[in-house]
Write a structure and sequence with these properties.
- A three-stranded antiparallel β-sheet has the order 5-6-7, with no helix packed on it. It has a two-stranded antiparallel ribbon with strand order 1-4.
- It has strands at 2-3, 6-7, 10-11, 16-17, 33-38, 44-48, 53-57.
- The radius of gyration is 14 Å and the shape is globular.
- It has one domain (2-57).
- With 60 residues, the protein is mainly β.
- The two termini are 18 Å apart.
């Protein structure tokens, strides 16, 4: 997954990887993110159908 910074409704910088590590060598995967939602606290919830998991991504 990537983050693209925006300013005044337009991209303001390059895309940055922020959620990685799903791909093994070759065609194998550790996970496969298939959906994203925003929780009430502002964190991202990422559904992973290969790992049968919902990941919570939040600011430290």
């Amino acid at each position: 997954m990537i983050f693209v910074p925006f300013n005044d409704g337009k991209p303001s910088g390059p895309a940055e990887d922020f959620l990685t590590g799903y791909i093994k060598e070759g065609d194998e995967v550790y996970g496969r993110p298939v959906g994203v939602a925003v929780a009430k606290d502002g964190s991202l919830l990422v559904a992973d159908d290969a790992g049968n998991t919902i990941w919570k991504v939040s600011k430290q």
